[in-house]
Amino acid sequence: MSASEFDGLPGVAVSLLKGGVGKSTIALNIADRLSERGHETVLIDLDKDGHMTTQLGYDEAYDRETNLGDALIDGEDPQKLLLETDFGVSLLPSSDELENIETRLKDERFADVKLRRNVVEPLIDDGYDYVVIDAAGGRGKLSDNALIALQKVIIPLIPRAGSINGLNKMIERQISPIRENIGLDILAVTPNMIRETMSQHNEHRTLLENLNREFGSFVPEYARVDPDVFDALDDRNQTVESIPKPGIRERTAISRAFKQGMPVSAFDDECDQIPNFDHLADLVEEQSNA
What we know:
The chain is of the alpha/beta class. Helices cover 43% and strands 11% of the residues. β3 and β4 form a beta hairpin.
């Protein structure tokens, strides 16, 4: 299956092959910013634990008999599964059956394009403008489906040991094969949950330095730091007027909003991190319209 067989579809998958990096929060807030601009936006929770679905208050939908598998594998109309949130985004909820659905996919023909063909394309044909996918946290058919469905990915990383190593493994084992055979664009590799100052050596600064050095072209503007700035911060003979605060910063408003089942803009519209989510939404719009 070659890249020429696919036209790009509007939207993005938020993915990393491990959990706990804020995928759901970033996906939710990107979907919110797209919706705020007047776009009909669908947020797909493809994570098996249903963290997004249950956090938004749809526990019953997570457990219901009719679920994502009916559309993904059996070709049922995905629009019938959509839930309308209070903040204008349509949610296609996860299911407690996703583990079984993953197993079933292994026996399906053209398994890696099921999400695209049976879910995303019908939603776009029905008039939805953008699809944002909270991808599964581990490698498997569902994770591959998320990347292949939209051919665009945003990858969040948090400051902990092995983050860059994990990113390199994901690129080698998943992203590169999909890119070569079908086509896949990395829209951004964004540092997330950053709280420490850049004037001290810590995991937060190390992540930013390594990302800017090794993946500079994928680092969004709000996370870019010139290496000379880091050098100046370490030089006692130099004065840095403004210490940079790159990345999506850890904010109480973001975590509280998610716990209450809403994007941060609905909880605190003055949160200083909203422009960063807007920037990620800009990248989705620009690449989708390219």
